[in-house]
Amino acid sequence: MTHASRLALTAIGLVAVLSSTSSAFAADPPTPARALFKEARELAAQGDYQAACPKFEQSLALEAGLGTQFNLADCWEHIGRIASAQALFVGAAASAKAAGQSDREQVLRDRAAALEPRISRLVIEVSDPDPKLVVKRGDLPLESDSFGKAKAVDPGSYQITAKAPGKKTWTKQVEVAPGASIITVEVPRLEADAPAEVAAVAPVEKKPAPPPPKPLPKEQPSKGPGLGFYAMGGVALGGLTLGTIMTVKYSNANSDAKATCPSNHDCTPDQIAYHDQRVEDAKTARTWAYVGFGVGALGLGAAAALLFLPQSTEKEKAWVATPVIANGTYGASVAGQF
Q1: What is the average per-residue pLDDT within 169-197?
Q2: Of the candidate ranges 135-139, 176-180, 253-257, 312-316, the one whose mean pLDDT is the lowest
Q3: pLDDT tens for residues 264-298?
Q4: SS3 of residue 184 by DSSP
Q5: Of 55, 29, 33, nearest to 42 (Cα)?
Q6: CA nearest to 153, candidates 85, 90, 71
Q7: Which CATH architecture has domain 3-117?
Q8: In Å, how far from its chain's centre is CA 186?
């Protein structure tokens, strides 16, 4: 395939991705993420990429989607963040491959490859063998295996910092200009820090310790369910209700996805986009269903323990840890003291 043919296919693929993304968002009910996406698309269409990129970033943080990744990478390319744009194009291509969308994957990989000649790289050479040495690029700590290797960076100003216990901190400001270039920074051996002067401390007069407090009389265990039991019962009811609602939403979204373009072939861009969105909606609803039923089960267990186990004279303590999202996983926990 000639270079001109590849550029033509890339342009056709770009139009397909943009149009399918726009129609998918227009067909679904508005959400904060989609409202931000729409605003960003309008700003990008007017050429105001500096204002559009932050809105694409906020939309992607609220709702991950292949179309949003593509538009954000394209926006970064327009404002000169070439390294970030290429990395996001590559990541979006991997997502498209996992979803079985080979046409979109090829478009994204072509866009990433086209940026390669324009990327600047930064090499950080370290000669200090101190194993406790910490080198940072801005606020980002660098792994030791990255020393001496050319890493793609966006144009801009970077502060390189090197620290180690008992050594003076070393810093250097590096400017990376737009356009392909390789900049090397050498981190020297750190100088030993001057020992701190220890001030003389006057002896402290010891005072006799106060007598220990008298123990309080023991109280009889309280009878009947306490506040902890009702709190855990409320947690269980709320969790089971959430699980039930999310199960219904999952079933509806899954049925819609199966009924619309299930094979991803001989379909219109609108059908493909609607199918992709309903699959994402089903996955989200299923995850929250798991969380709801999990919290409900834990709440029931805690309530049963509070009801049937002997209760102490101390105030009951119980709490519920809300679902935590970290690296794409969800979880919940319930704990108590009886």
Answers
A1: 87
A2: 312-316
A3: 666 777 777 777 787 888 889 899 888 878 887 88
A4: strand
A5: 55
A6: 85
A7: Alpha Horseshoe (1.25)
A8: 32
Closest among 36, 39, 114, 34 to 74, alpha carbons compared: 114
Q: Is the pTM of this model over 0.90?
A: no
Question: What's the pLDDT score for residue 264?
Answer: 62
140 SS3 class: strand
Residue 152 token pair? 């793609």
Point out which residues pair with 329 in neighbouring strands.
Answer: 326
Are residues 196 and 285 in contact, defined by beta-carbon separation less than 8 angstroms? no
What own/partner pairs with CB < 8 Å and gap ≥ 24 does 6-10 have? 6/110, 9/106, 9/107, 9/110, 10/107, 10/110, 10/111, 10/114
pLDDT of residue 267: 78
Mark 325-335 as b/e (b = at least 16 C-beta within 10 Å).
eeeeeeebebe
| Rounded (10°) CA dihedral 200, 205, 210, 211 | 110
Span 200-213, average pLDDT: 70
Topology at the third CATH level for domain 120-187: Immunoglobulin-like (2.60.40)
What does the buried/exposed string (b/e) look like for 21-41 if buried means 16 or more CB atoms within 10 Å of the residue's CB?
bbbbbeeeeeeebbebbbbbb
Specify the 3-state DSSP secondary structure of 265: coil
Extended beta strands in the chain, E state: 120-126, 134-137, 140-141, 150-153, 156-163, 170-176, 182-187, 317-321, 333-337
Domain boundaries, the chain: 3-117, 120-187, 227-337
**In this predicted model, what pLDDT tens digit does every residue of 134-159 receive, in sequence order?**
999 989 999 988 999 989 999 999 99
pLDDT at 311: 55
Measured distance CA(291)–CA(285) in Å, rounded: 10
Q: How far apart are CA 122 and CA 154, in angstroms?
A: 10
Q: Are strands 156-163 and 134-137 parallel, antiparallel or unpaired?
A: antiparallel
Tokens 């049937």 belong to which residue? 308
CB 174 within 8 A of CB 122: yes
